[in-house]
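Translate structure to sequence.
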């Protein structure tokens, strides 16, 4: 269903190449999404997938990973899905640090619903009668927010370089804990000017770091087009504390008798 030239094709290519490089059998991978053009990704893969509810991909994926820890669970979606209606789930997933890889295709617009401003839209971007004069609202900063909330791996990629995106997604999937890959993925239809992004993409000048303050200072100083691994931490992933197998569910309500 994607428009010709949509950036999401490049992200799909990158994700497919990453899964092929990791040699994980398709039946051991689940790709979970919300709603949006970007969230159609599971439909184009031969892995298991779940095309879920707008903004709720992360809690769905968290439940799946805790119930089936042996699966590789990737979450995919857009900036509207992940940072607007799903914004609090994004912060909670970074804090909780369940071993998921979250790939966000950021085109700074709601593509599927025909061009409304998203949390990452520049304040002066005008789109006809929808946002006369622009929103006037400061854009959300996904990478520094991920860092501040506790994400264990933070990277930026570009859909114009599917091979580069694939390498970063491989590293993200291999890294234990919550890994966040922010992909600049132009919307050809509602933001045609984003076609120029590919000329601005360049490798991050600094080496990757495991130091939060250093990563934050790089991110606050960058112009939004540096790609690469920007932070790789060592926080232990969240593990569920399952009840002992011997507990009889029928006895559980005794604890709640008053
Ligand atoms: C609860 C709910 N609210 C709103 C919508 C309408 N809706 C569908 S997709 C979307 C935004 C999609 O934007 P984004 O996640 O950035 O993805 P893109 O289409 O740009 O790839 C919205 C608001 C919905 N489907 N469900
Ligand atoms: S509307 Fe934009 S994001 Fe959606 S498929 Fe078309 S180009 Fe891609």
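Result:
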């Amino acid at each position: 269903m994607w428009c010709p030239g949509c950036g999401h094709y490049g992200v799909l290519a990158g994700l497919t190449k990453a899964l092929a490089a990791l040699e994980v059998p398709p039946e051991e991978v689940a790709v979970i999404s919300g709603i949006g053009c970007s969230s159609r990704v599971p439909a184009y893969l031969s892995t298991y997938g779940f095309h879920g509810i707008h903004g709720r991909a992360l809690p769905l994926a968290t439940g799946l990973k805790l119930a089936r820890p042996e699966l590789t669970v990737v979450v995919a979606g857009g900036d509207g899905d992940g940072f607007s209606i799903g914004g609090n789930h994004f912060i909670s997933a970074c804090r909780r640090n369940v071993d998921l890889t979250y790939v966000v295709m950021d085109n700074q617009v709601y593509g599927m619903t025909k061009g409304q401003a998203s949390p990452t839209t520049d304040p002066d971007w005008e789109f006809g009668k929808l946002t006369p004069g622009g929103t006037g609202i400061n854009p959300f900063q996904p990478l520094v927010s991920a860092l501040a909330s506790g994400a264990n791996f933070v990277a930026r990629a570009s859909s114009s370089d599917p091979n580069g995106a694939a390498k970063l997604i491989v590293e993200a999937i291999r890294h234990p804990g919550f890994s966040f890959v922010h992909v600049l993925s132009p919307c050809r239809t509602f933001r045609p000017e984003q076609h120029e992004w590919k000329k601005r993409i360049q490798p991050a000048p600094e080496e990757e770091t495991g130091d939060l303050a250093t990563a934050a200072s790089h991110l606050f100083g960058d112009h939004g087009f540096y790609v690469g691994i920007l932070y790789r931490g060592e926080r232990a992933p969240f593990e569920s504390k399952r009840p002992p197998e011997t507990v009889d569910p029928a006895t559980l309500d005794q604890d709640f008798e008053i």
